[in-house]
Amino acid sequence: QVQPVESGGGWVQAGGSLTLSCTASTRTFGVYAVGWFRQAPGKEREFVASINWNGGRTDYAASMKGRFTISRDNAQNTVSLQMDSLEPGDTAVYYCAWEPALSGDTWRESNRYTYWGHGTPVTVSS
Predict the structure, then answer these.
(1) Helix (H) or strand (E) holding 1
(2) Which of the four, 1, 23, 59, 124, has the lowest number of CB atoms within 10 Å?
(3) What is the DSSP string of 51-71?
(4) Over the chain, what is the mean pLDDT?
């Protein structure tokens, strides 16, 4: 059973940056596609970004493109989400989700991912 663990959340002023990380103890980290999602209070969970198993394919939600960067280091079993130019609207709990996918696919739909972390909160103040 793979259990992703997120870290790096916190409080930041608008315009600032945070880097979130997602890792898990597994020998097969390199086969997983990873997605980042977020859920703000009273809102549905939404797609943020995704990366395929070798880092060769990334995808971003329109409102994050140009501000967020997803990357991975398979040697360190880590996927990172660099978030710049943060806005109060980015306040949410951020989750990483994993799905085995040697096909190279990634998905924007949360129900395509099997393994989920417990989330890390991000608060952006104006």
Answers:
(1) none
(2) 1
(3) E-TTSS-EEE-TTTBTTEEEE
(4) 95
